[in-house]
Amino acid sequence: MIKDLGACELEEITDTNKYKGYIQTAIRKYGHCAEHNYYHYHHYEDDKEKNIFFKLEGSKGILSSYDKKNDLRYLFPSGILAPEEERFDILVKFLDYILKKKKGEKLFVEVNGEFRKEILRGLKDSRQYRACSSPFILYWPLYNMSKFDSKLKGKNWKKLRNIRNRFYKKNKVKVVDSKKVPKEQLTRILDAWLKRRNAHDRVEKHYFENLIENNLKGVEMARTLIVNGNPCSITAGWKIPNSKGYYSHVGIVDYSCEGLGEVANIEDLKLLKRKKYDYVDFGGSDKVLLYFKKKFKPEKIYKTYIFSIVKR
Fold this sequence. Notes:
Layout: E1 11-13, H1 20-30, H2 38-43, E2 49-56, E3 60-67, E4 72-81, H3 87-101, E5 107-112, H4 113-126, E6 129-131, E7 136-144, H5 158-170, E8 173-177, H6 183-195, H7 205-213, E9 221-227, E10 230-231, E11 233-239, E12 245-253, H8 260-274, E13 279-281, H9 287-293, E14 300-311
Parallel strand pairs: 4-5, 12-13
Antiparallel strand pairs: 1-2, 2-3, 3-4, 5-14, 6-14, 7-13, 7-14, 8-9, 9-10, 9-11, 11-12
Helix pairs in contact: 5-8, 6-7
């Protein structure tokens, strides 16, 4: 049953730079998923898609965006910043605003499995909106740092250990802060990586261009492997709010040498273990990319669902 939120009105904020402080406060207070990071949200904005934040009382809010050309509305992944028990009711209020007041055709959302179930149940009871079928599924591996062996000892780590040993035997390697690498070299790595993406791997090129142009602002850790004198990788991420977890969002390599992707991630996991994170999230992807991520022995894999909601 949908609860009455009383005078909980939505205030539409189109200048998210001006309200950066409020949005960051909402994320600190109610952030609960890997993608809750102000600068991460900011870097996705481009000429085609405008970020729009909806402000609610009590430092609550909604992270969303609008594609004006195609008249499409998006809820940023798990973008409702509020106590868990209020999120569905705020979503309904958001649907009222987008689909009724603004006369939008649909709202696209990305949520985890539990919240999707709550949405399906709640919308069925409301009889106002319905979730469209056949959602697109992303797979998110989680790594328990207490189980990660930095030295890669034993048979369970044999394949990764062999890849690492061969890599260091063949190459002269140094790990540096990516923020100290010239932007043009980071852009070269990005361009080489983009050329190898397959047609099914959705890549928001402008996001990574914005990230580099803004000196990787918003990330807690950014690292680059210098292999035989050449920068070859960019890995970066941040602490997941209100948790002891880390989100390893950026994993870019130029494919110049075998084992580069594996070694870049091994080096990150070693440091994150020393930083005493409980777990590391390697981000959502399709099953093809998940195959690579499984090499690092995730403890669990959770799913998020991307689908649209329309009026009945």
